[in-house]
Specification:
Layout: H1 4-19, H2 30-41, H3 53-67, H4 69-78, H5 83-108
Helix pairs in contact: 1-2, 3-5, 4-5
Main location: mitochondrion
Protein name: ATP synthase CF1 alpha chain
InterPro entries: ATP_synth_asu_C (IPR000793), ATP_synth_asu_C_sf (IPR038376), ATP_synth_F1_asu (IPR005294)
Length: 113
Amino acid sequence: DLDKATQNQLARGQRLRELLKQSQSDPLTVEEQIVTIYTGANGYLDPLEIGQVKKFLVQLRTYLKKNKPQFQEIISSTKTFTEQAEALLREAIQEQIELFLLQEQASTSPSYS
C-alpha cells in the first residue's frame, strides 16, 4: 500500500496529464497554456475528479476572458507572466473553483422535489 503523500502525488500526476491534452485542430493560446499549467502545477485541481478537470479549465478560461481581460493583455504585451498577471489568475481560480465545486455538487446530488 502507498502512503497518503504518494497517493496524492500520483493523483496530481493524473490530473496534470489530463490538463495537457488538447485538440490538434484547436491548440491553446500561450495565455491559455499558462492558465492550464499554473492551475495544475499549483494544486488547484487537486479537489477535482479527473473527469472534471477539462470542464473546469474551460470554465476558468472563459471566466478569465470575460471578467479579467487584463490578464491576457498583460501576457500579450509583456510576453511575461508578471506578478500582476499571477495575482489576477490566482484570484480567478479561487473564485471559480468554489463555484465549480458547488455546481458539480448540486448537479450530482439527488433532488427531492
